[in-house]
Amino acid sequence: MSITTEGRRHTGFKEKADPSAGVKDINSREGKIKMSQMRFTVLGRTGETVLDLEYERVFAIGYAGRDMEKTMEHIRELERELGVPAPKKIPTIFQCGNYVLTQERELAFVGDKTCGEVEYVIVLCHGKIYIGVGSDHTDRELEAVNVPKAKQICAKPICASLWDYEEIKDHWDEIRLRSWQTVGGEEILYQEGTLRDILPVETILKELNERVGAVDNCVIFSGTVPVKNGFRFGSNFRYEMEDEILGRKLSADYNAEAISEEER
């Protein structure tokens, strides 16, 4: 670790003038790996550190509820309201292009049937586990036709701050997730739950290692908690993860502009 000009400790890789994502090539025995870059701030009990992450892959986990009955309820909800076919295996693992990960606030999506889902996010960096919060924004119309494409086509916003997993694992189940959507100018509570509702970190990593192979330097969206009153499609999506034990939270929001589907 070293000291940055901002007075915060720095961990990871060399600083970049642009804190947004970038891409570089790294050669490996398997061939050339595209490494993307993104800067985060790790908020710890004793201070802040800067993490310049270089990541190889982005994954989105689906149907990752810890309670099987609630998971099946979510599957039926998707099938009933959106026509999404039931998965062949749960949890499901979707790989997304690295470029979908974003910390931008102004986003645009084709059509008016896209929306976010609040999720905890696993950030792996050289064997170290960090936890963040993000939104698995998804095209709901395309999801009814092809779920992997629906996951891939939308940007995946992530909060620019992270927590060290070691600092929260002893009270993991008590941490809360919430999201709000602005619909017709009014902000409404869209989702609320705890990490007890979602598969834990170790289970998700075990599934990835068994089905995908050893993973490191990756970003993994965990799966979400149920919506409160059906799917909504708002102009702003706000999401947070709150740790009431340590008295802190991670939060972010983004605007979701609906682009016309018509040719001009």
What can you see in these coordinates?
- The protein is mainly β and 264 residues long.
- The protein has a single domain (59-88, 100-259), classed as Fumarylacetoacetate hydrolase, domain 2 (Alpha-Beta Complex).
- It has helices at residues 68-82, 140-143, 147-152, 201-211, and strands at residues 2-3, 9-12, 22-28, 31-44, 47-55, 57-62, 92-96, 101-102, 106-110, 114-115, 118-125, 128-135, 138-139, 156-157, 161-164, 176-183, 186-194, 218-224, 236-243, 248-259.
- Strands 1, 2, 3, 4, 5, 6, 7, 11, 12, 15 and 18 form an eleven-stranded mixed β-sheet that branches.
- Residues 1-20 and 26-31 have low confidence and may be disordered.
Keywords:
Fumarylacetoacetate hydrolase, domain 2; 4 helices; globular; 5-stranded mixed beta sheet; mainly beta; 11-stranded mixed beta sheet; disordered N terminus; 264 residues; 47% strand; 20 strands
Concise synopsis of the structure shown:
The chain has 264 residues and is mainly β. The chain has helices at 68-82, 140-143, 147-152, 201-211; strands at 2-3, 9-12, 22-28, 31-44, 47-55, 57-62, 92-96, 101-102, 106-110, 114-115, 118-125, 128-135, 138-139, 156-157, 161-164, 176-183, 186-194, 218-224, 236-243, 248-259.
